[in-house]
User: Which sequence fits this backbone?
């Protein structure tokens, strides 16, 4: 039986919560831990592991989108109904906000903790490597595009069964290794929104002012990725064979 939309949205809420809590939590709590932090590589792996674990946990329930850009890409790629996209988006954003709020509650338990950017995404002066707005825009669109291609390819009916979560989790790890120095890597508006709200609540208003890019770029990249896979890489039905009429001779 089909899973009701309400249950799928609950799964998306908790799955996105886990993505933001695990990924951003590794950045806030463990990346620069005194003397033995996990660094960029550890944060990238943490994001990949959150998706990998949730894909196995809720993939059979909601499809494990965890990301408005993924949902949009699956809509443009004709893998997901457009009329269910908005409930998924709301569930994902709410999950991200809840995760950021609880992450703050934990992080603030350490004496001397300062919110700072709180793992927010940024460009220009707020890019970890000082990359320009244009460079950050291009990176986010491109990396989200390839993320959608991997998602759609690994979940294609022709792909090896049961390995999609590994491919998707490792892809997210890879694009974080590329993109963390550029934007702190988003490719996910829900991932960007929660931390930006927490940062803004404590004076980091720049995170909200720059949030538009981390909605626009992933959504564009996701939509293009879905369209590209559907048009170029998806299995297309062969044209019908028209039999020629048989000519009979007397």
Assistant:
């Amino acid at each position: 039986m089909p899973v009701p939309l309400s249950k799928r949205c609950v799964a998306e809420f908790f799955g996105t919560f886990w993505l933001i809590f695990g990924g951003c939590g590794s950045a806030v709590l463990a990346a620069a831990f005194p003397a033995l932090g996990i660094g960029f590589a550890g944060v990238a792996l943490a994001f990949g592991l959150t998706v990998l674990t949730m894909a196995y946990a809720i993939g059979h329930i909601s499809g494990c989108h965890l990301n408005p850009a993924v949902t949009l890409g699956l809509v443009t790629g004709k893998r997901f109904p457009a009329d269910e996209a908005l409930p998924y988006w709301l569930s994902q954003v709410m999950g991200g906000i809840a995760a950021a709020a609880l992450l703050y509650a934990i992080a603030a338990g350490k004496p001397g903790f300062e919110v700072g950017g709180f793992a927010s995404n940024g460009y220009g002066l707020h890019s970890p490597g000082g990359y320009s707005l244009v460079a950050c825009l291009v990176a986010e669109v491109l990396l989200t595009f390839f993320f959608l291609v991997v998602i759609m390819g690994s979940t294609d009916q022709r792909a090896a069964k049961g390995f999609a979560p590994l491919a998707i989790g490792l892809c997210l790890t890879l694009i974080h290794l590329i993109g963390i120095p550029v934007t702190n890597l988003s490719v996910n508006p829900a991932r960007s929104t929660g931390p930006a709200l927490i940062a803004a609540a404590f004076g980091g208003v720049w995170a909200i002012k720059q949030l538009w890019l981390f909605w626009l770029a992933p959504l564009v990249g996701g939509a293009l990725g879905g369209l590209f896979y559907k048009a170029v890489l998806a299995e297309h039905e062969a044209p019908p064979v028209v039999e020629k009429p048989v000519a009979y001779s007397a």
